[in-house]
């Protein structure tokens, strides 16, 4: 089987809903007949397993892959819930970016689409010299950016897109996730502003909205085909 396409699923902040978006994205792709697998690039706050990857699998009906058993879908796990750099240093370790790249490439050998969920936002440090976005850019992974319509998110979204553009990354699109307590006027303006700015920056003006749902389901039917055409 030839190499699949790898996408970097990141967000404008911690707690923006990357894990639930990656899960619903994988679920929707599978329902559309696409062969998709998720990878948690670096998991912190766990020992021996990735809670984010577990959520992905649960949202997809409990499906498991051989790559899960081989440790390829959660190649770096650290106990302390912090940035990967700090969590690794507290264990006397360094984030092994080579192991991450190798694991993702192995997954891409057997699957059409690989969704790599980042740890935190784009500028989260993996090592002293490398940010999360630096690794994705070096590997040529298109960005799927998760945002929402809360006050301040336009600033964070545009700065994230600028970080991607300055590194020569392509952007597959933006996922506009739901947030609690969002003003409807600000929410609608955020979607329009982000779409317009994507076009102005030379990216596809793709903004896909994900409605509110619970991690336990039921899950909405979201059409991501435009993003993964």
Provide an overview of this structure:
The protein has 229 residues and is of the alpha/beta class. It has one domain: Rossmann fold (3-Layer(aba) Sandwich). 37% of the residues lie in helices and 18% in strands. It is built from eight helices and eight strands. The chain has helices at 18-31, 51-59, 66-69, 84-90, 97-108, 132-139, 153-166, 184-200; strands at residues 5-11, 36-40, 43-44, 77-78, 113-121, 143-148, 171-177, 207-209. Strands 2-5-1-6-7-8 form a six-stranded parallel beta sheet, sandwiched between helices. The chain has a two-stranded parallel ribbon with strand order 3-4. Helix 1 runs parallel beside helix 2 and helix 7 packs parallel to helix 8. The longest helix is centred in the C-terminal third of the chain and has 17 residues, at 184-200. The two termini are 19 Å apart.
